[in-house]
Amino acid sequence: MDATHLDSTASLEAAALEYAGRGWRVFPCYEPARIPSGALICTCPKGERCGNTGKHPHTANGVKDATTDAAIIREWWRQWPTANVAIATGGSSGVDVVDADAKADGVTMLLKLEAERGALPDTVTARTSGGGCHVYFRHAGMVSRAGSIAPGIDTRGDGGYVIAPPSLHRTGERYAWVEGLGPHEMPLAEAPEWIRNAAQPKRSRSVPALPANTVNAWQPPLHDAVTEAQLRKRLRATSDSKHAATVERMLAGEALFPSGHHDDNLWAFISYLRFKCPEASDATLLRLLGPSVEAMACDDHDVREAARLLQRVNAEYAASRADSEQVASELSGRGGPRTSLTADSSSPGDHPGTDDWMAAPGYAIYDGQALGIFKFTDKGNLSTIASAPINITETGEDEHGTCYVTVRWLYGQRERVETVPRAKVSGSDILELAGRGAPLTSNNSKRVQDFLQAQEQHSHAILPRVRIFTQSGWSHDLRSFVVGRQVIGEPGRVIMPGDAAFLDALKPAGSADEHLRLMLAVRDKGPIAEMAWAAGFAAPLLRLLAMRSMCLSVWGPSGAGKSAVQAITTSVWGRPSGLKISGDVSSAALQGELARHRDLPTWVDDTQLTREYMTSLLAYLVGTETSGARATQTGELRTRKTWRSLAFISGEKPLLQVGGAAGAKNRTLEVCAQPLGDVALASLTHQGLEKHHGHAGPLFILELMARYTNTDRLEKLREQHRQLAFKMATETAEQARYAALLVLADVLARTLVCGEEESRARAAALDAGQAFCAAVKKESRETQATADAAYDFIMGFVAANWLGFSQSGAFKRPGMVLDEKDDTGRSIVAIFHTTMQEIAREGRFDTRQVLTELVMKGLALKDEGHLTRKVSVEGKRVRAYCVVLDDARVEMGRTPGPARETRTVEGKP
């Protein structure tokens, strides 16, 4: 865009839209306006009193409001047509800017530095007022700081912004692109190393050097300055249970540590003795240690070794004392407890970078183990709060409004980082960090909380605000999608504590082309395989279409390729075996997996769930979403936790039975199939997917965002889904909606991932979907047996196994005929509990529901509210269901058998 084309204010909106089209986030700023006297003043409420004319934001949140959304940009410039255009710098836009101010001799200094250190590459450059310039580079993590390169040369990176052409400067000049170096003429170059090095955040706070004449004054005393009683009392005064126990063993002359634990423990305990009692002589400490060291009976750790370790500890303590005195002297020289970061700091250059230790008013931090966090008391003495630095360096909120903070501390001379919800450092839960090495105890936790709170409040304005994602799947506003550690869409930070294996499984591997070839080879095997493939892309559509979770169940003989086609679904996102639920799981574990797989497919192989009822439970959980307590990724239970999941279940038996909840049935599509029909092909598919996976999902989401996720286009997607649902022939309208979801996913995957022409893709997907629905409908009708059909099946089993019911000596008898009659004089057969369960599995019906209906029909007995009764068999009590015999079917009198034993119902003759 040439400068001559940007002279009119009408071009301001066009410029903002062009920059947004390049991915640069923009927002409006107040512009200068000419008053009758001819002077230019700011159009903000301060007017001529404004000290930042034409450079401060119109919007409430300033640079945080910067966007690339064209609709928002048009609305801004409709409201403020003459507003200056500002570009947010840093990672959000992918640009860093070097600002050379001509009035502060910044241009002259930049030319001098180029002559000394190397010329700047050709890159996008804008002309500012008085001959100054903005030099744009690819984002490399520069800080936003005045004079970061040299006096008069500022940098703008994360959290900063620059005014862009054709905005108006307070001098009356307009910002303009240098001819030949506009963004439409020149790509962004990488900043030279000397620029990048000078503009990086400071990594650590420097420690003042000791004066040359400083000597280490502390030496271990030759004579004790405390009595032995005082020494013992002081050693016992510890909140550390391990130290307390070791002190008691030492005072009792017992072995300090068990065999194999002498090395580090002996040095650590001697360090504790010296730091706790610097007034005690070496001779006294060794006298106390001697008996307990000898009791360890260790050749490598005798009294001589203890003496050697004590000399080493003395040297360490002396160095620590010298450092402490040096820091105290430095602070005293500054006039008290105020630190370099004070409340009245006005220059952006005074603020520490993201990775610096930061301090709050009244506190100071030293990067060593001796003092850590400390403050001055009323008497001017240093009071230690924690033995090592601990600090907050960044904060942000997730999509649910939970505030997260990053806490840092030194442990073992290394920096450790933990990102936790803000509530974790505001209550007793802060002590959990002590288990990971943070310098916290129950004694100092309250003072550390006060310190962190003061520090956070003081530093709030300069803490980087980051967007936090804590789960896979869509963000609340559908502008981002998280897969593992990858954020597609708007940038943010992913925090998934404790999910290393899950995140590793979501990493792509192998060849994207080979993965696509494998997927298409499986998809083309038939409609069942095609719908399973499409279901991998259907998972993220559930939320877009406001649908609830669903199941897809494929059952049939082993080795027919059921698991292989369902492995395709998870391979779209990552490694199939890593995303599969297996093992003996609980209800809470299933809920946790479903919550963690939010908007991603979940693969369950029911042959690997050793508790048989768990697969039915999974169908219930996914189908109805009625569980009161849901598990989170960290293992916690949270009530009314909402999630959307698409679960795939494969096995050798059907999942749904007559007794399944209606919601589970309506949201479960089940078929009996042998999708591949070839064991060798299934094995090769598994092997290939383990090597090549995780490529199609992110590509699908990128294309979906580009075409459908904004408000207007999303309605088009919903309309496509409604049209497809009308063409699906299933048992219920809700099943049709879920079948249509798979067909829609098939259409989108064919077009967005495979590049097929839309009309042909739609026709092919519709054919496959209708064939799939026919199989689902057939399966649904077979599983929807009535209670009468179940009764016929039960009587058929009784007739086929009549010998076991009518003769007392039958081997492993399944039940027995009672002497009792019902009200109409019909005979009663008692079917043992385990036998009825076998009959129900074979007949594919739910025992409880069928027996309840049979009781209502008068074909079964109910005893005191229970469907089962206890009957006596050879003196043993056995639980059984009591069902009225169908005489016509069984023909009782035809096989009288031997004389019957006396059979009684417990409590009755």
From TrEMBL:
DNA primase/polymerase bifunctional N-terminal domain: residues covered: 16-195
Polar residues bias spans: 339-348
Sample GO molecular function, one term: hydrolase activity
Keywords of the record: Hydrolase
Hydrolase in keyword set: yes
Segments for region (Disordered): 324-356
PANTHER family: ATP BINDING PROTEIN-RELATED (PTHR35372), SF3 HELICASE DOMAIN-CONTAINING PROTEIN (PTHR35372:SF2)
Stated name of the protein: DUF927 domain-containing protein
Natural source organism: Corallococcus exiguus
Lineage: Bacteria, Pseudomonadati, Myxococcota, Myxococcia, Myxococcales
